[in-house]
Amino acid sequence: QVQLVESGGGLVQAGGSLRLSCAASGRTFSTDAMGWFRQAPGKEREFVAGINWTGVNTYYADSVKGRFTISRDNAKNTVYLQMNSLKPEDTAVYYCAAGKLRSVVTGIGTNYWGQGTQVTVSS
């Protein structure tokens, strides 16, 4: 099994920045990738960004391209999401996910999930 713990959420003004962290533990070798999803009130959970551990491939939702950057530190089994130029529309609970690359990027299939961290962007 894999355990995921997110941190770094908070309240920021529009145009500000936050960096989310997700630390993975357990049988992480059973996963190929990690990524981030978010869910705003009244909306479906949506994919934000993903990264595979073997290569240096990254994937982003169109809504965050150019503003968010996903990265990883393999030695620490940790993935980061640097969020710049934040908008009120980015307000959501952000969830870390780990699993096969296909599942992490598409949201289809089985993923391990963190507990979520709240990101609130004020106007």
Rg to the nearest angstrom? 13 Å
Unreliable residue stretches: none
- Could you give a short account of the major beta sheet? 7 strands, mixed
The whole-number mean of residue pLDDT values reads: 93
Approximate shape: globular
For the structure shown, list the relevant keywords.
1 helix, mainly beta, 4-stranded antiparallel sheet, 7-stranded mixed sheet, 123 residues, single chain, globular
Description:
The chain is mainly beta. The chain is 5% helix and 53% strand. It contains one helix and eleven strands, in the order E-E-E-E-E-E-E-E-E-H-E-E. It has one helix at residues 101-106, and strands at residues 2-7, 10-13, 18-26, 33-39, 46-52, 58-60, 68-73, 78-83, 92-99, 111-113, 117-122. The strands form two sheets. Strands 2, 4, 5, 6, 9, 10 and 11 form a seven-stranded mixed β-sheet that branches. It has a four-stranded antiparallel β-sheet with strand order 1-3-8-7, with no helix packed on it. A hairpin with a 4-residue loop joins strand 7 and strand 8 (78-83). The longest helix has 6 residues, at 101-106. The model has no long low-confidence stretch (mean pLDDT 93).
Write the layout of secondary structure elements.
Elements: E1 2-7, E2 10-13, E3 18-26, E4 33-39, E5 46-52, E6 58-60, E7 68-73, E8 78-83, E9 92-99, H1 101-106, E10 111-113, E11 117-122
Parallel strand pairs: 2-11
Antiparallel strand pairs: 1-3, 3-8, 4-5, 4-9, 5-6, 7-8, 9-10, 9-11
Nutshell version of this structure?
The protein is mainly beta. It has one helix at 101-106; strands spanning 2-7, 10-13, 18-26, 33-39, 46-52, 58-60, 68-73, 78-83, 92-99, 111-113, 117-122.
